[in-house]
Amino acid sequence: MTTPSLTIRPPSGKLAVLLPGLGAVATTFIAGVLLARRGLGSPIGSLTQMGTLRLGGPNGERSSLVRDAVPLATMDDLVFGAWDIFPEDALDVARHAEVLESRHLDPIAEELREIQPMKGAFYARYVRRLNGTHVKEASSKAEMVEHLREDIRSFIRRHGAARAVAIWCGSTEVFLPPSAVHQSIEAFEAGLASDDPGISSSQLYAWACIKERVPFANGAPNLTVDFPAAWLLAKEMRVPLAGKDFKTGQTLLKTILAPGIKARSLGVHGWFSTNILGNRDGEVLDDPDNFKTKEASKLGVLEEILQPQQHPELYGDLYHKVRIEYYPPRGDAKEGWDNLDIFGWLGYPMQIKVNFLCRDSILAAPIVLDLALLLDLAARAGLHGTQEWLGFYFKSPMPTPESRPEHDLFIQSMKLKNTLRWMIGESAERPQGGGSFE
Ligand SMILES: NC(=O)c1ccc[n+]([C@@H]2O[C@H](COP(=O)([O-])OP(=O)(O)OC[C@H]3O[C@@H](n4cnc5c(N)ncnc54)[C@H](O)[C@@H]3O)[C@@H](O)[C@H]2O)c1
């Protein structure tokens, strides 16, 4: 028997999963959970459901499914709520998104039909490609936050939920750097009252959730919870946060490949990545200001993994370029191409070509499930502020003020599992030969 390092409240009662943005990712996630509950599908790609944890110390030979070793809520405990700026219910959205086939949607059609989005908090200047029709009215952004808080309370009441978590699955907003309004709780509250343009729609949801002590994760590259006022409020309210931008598709592969190339001390001259994507996300990203937010998130990855300042001969002149092209015929079935110009012994050049025919929402859905369950675990364990150990799931992992972002998927995975082991009182395994995992 081991002694847990933390007192973790048991996951009793229902867990409300609140999703600002009821689009392709959100409906694919919800449908997958409903199907898995009925034994009609498998939650593949979810570490909490399919992954294992080695127990019994660094040389431990016991291994357990994560969900058996760690006191997580189960998929049966979840109830789903959402906001969107369009009124379609989850069934209509899922049918239009064309991610899942009728054989998967038909058996759960009634349950999906019941998930109707609450009206969204939406200021069009942050997502110009969408013309929302199902939106809240408010005299100020401060009042809008109060409306969202009331939505959260009444959803929890209506569904008899014991706790809630929220995951931003809404569109990517235009690029917004943090400004004076983001630096303190007081400045942010004043900005809400005066409708400061630096405060976007997604930040209103985040603020409302933190105020209601609802843990919040950000699946898009927006600022949302990545600024000092949000961190300070989360500390004050003891709420865990995580972000940002789900790590799926091309970036997932990049953070698998780049550590391997670096481990073998091979050089990289250039890395060109391009995608075609035809869903609503692709349409929003067709606006250069919205793409800029995504680009910043995608570009940081290689710099952090390869560390050119430490290895100037190998990565000092690396040229990294990322493109996303909106191409409607493809829908959600994104296709990504990567060209890597690498070099080896004596500088001889080589090339690697990667062609990933992926499905965006199929890769993102298990991340939403894991984040919901792990953020809830963090809250029940009394953890608050940025949960750096959840960086595994993000393109732009939010670091704590004391740490730098870690992008290497293998170090991220070790950090996550070590944190889980630590929570349940199992001794953590350390990476052999060092590694910045602590
Ligand atoms: N699918 C992936 O692999 C992946 C990876 C990383 C990040 N993301 C991000 O996840 C988000 C969701 O992706 P998706 O494919 O489901 O997109 P989507 O366009 O299908 O869904 C987004 C939904 O958000 C709604 N929305 C926009 N602003 C809103 C607001 N203020 N309030 C409430 N709803 C709002 C839109 O109406 C839409 O229904 C996007 O920001 C995307 O960039 C997706």
From TrEMBL:
Iron-sulfur is among the record's keywords: no
Pfam family, one: NAD_binding_5
Source superkingdom: Bacteria
Keywords for the protein's UniProt record, in alphabetical order: Isomerase, Membrane, Transmembrane, Transmembrane helix
Transmembrane segment boundaries: 15-36
Biological processes, Gene Ontology terms: inositol biosynthetic process; phospholipid biosynthetic process
Enzyme Commission designation: 5.5.1.4
Keyword Cell wall biogenesis/degradation among record annotations: no
Family: Belongs to the myo-inositol 1-phosphate synthase family.
Protein name in the entry: Inositol-3-phosphate synthase
